[in-house]
């Protein structure tokens, strides 16, 4: 995944191979409705932001150890909260069947994701802001480029 966002309540979004995937939190929830590893989890990145089969700073990936001797995932398995999960196994409903591919109102690659109270936000590579407040996706071309993240705050 090149971008990941979660709300801590089982809802999550991820960009995988340039495609937006969404988990609404109602499909196959765990015993307490939380993602593996607890609320707010959803990334298996190490302390340098590397995860799974993403190459490290020396171009290594897969099962090659990183600079601390840790191995990444192989194509048949992925790490989930410190344990290894084989392809086809389900982790409290976080398997591939729990994710859907929504249709954004623009044909642009998502690069940054965020959640706020009752709102999902996607920023595309072209700088378009897409928002879903529960009633479908809307968009506004803003032209913001090179977005690395989205932060949302509640204003009282």
UniProtKB/TrEMBL annotation:
<feature type="compositionally biased region" description="Gly residues">
    <location>
        <begin position="27"/>
        <end position="41"/>
    </location>
</feature>
<dbReference type="InterPro" id="IPR056505">
    <property type="entry name" value="Beta-prop_HVO_0234"/>
</dbReference>
<feature type="compositionally biased region" description="Basic and acidic residues">
    <location>
        <begin position="45"/>
        <end position="70"/>
    </location>
</feature>
<dbReference type="Pfam" id="PF23366">
    <property type="entry name" value="Beta-prop_HVO_0234"/>
</dbReference>
<feature type="region of interest" description="Disordered">
    <location>
        <begin position="23"/>
        <end position="101"/>
    </location>
</feature>
<protein>
    <recommendedName>
        <fullName>HVO-0234-like beta-propeller domain-containing protein</fullName>
    </recommendedName>
</protein>
<feature type="domain" description="HVO-0234-like beta-propeller">
    <location>
        <begin position="87"/>
        <end position="152"/>
    </location>
</feature>
């Amino acid at each position: 995944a090149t971008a990941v966002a979660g709300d801590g309540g089982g809802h999550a979004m991820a960009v995988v191979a340039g495609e937006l995937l969404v988990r609404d939190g109602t499909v196959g929830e765990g015993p307490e409705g939380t993602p593996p590893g607890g609320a707010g989890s959803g990334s298996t990145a190490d302390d340098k932001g590397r995860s799974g089969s993403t190459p490290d700073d020396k171009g290594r990936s897969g099962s090659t150890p990183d600079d601390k001797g840790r191995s990444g995932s192989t194509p048949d398995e992925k790490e989930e909260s410190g344990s290894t999960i084989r392809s086809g196994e389900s982790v409290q409903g976080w398997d591939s069947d729990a994710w859907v591919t929504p249709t954004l109102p623009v044909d642009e690659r998502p690069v940054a994701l965020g959640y706020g109270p009752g709102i999902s936000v996607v920023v595309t590579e072209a700088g378009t802001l897409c928002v879903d407040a529960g009633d479908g996706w809307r968009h506004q071309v803003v032209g913001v480029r090179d977005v690395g993240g989205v932060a949302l705050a509640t204003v009282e």
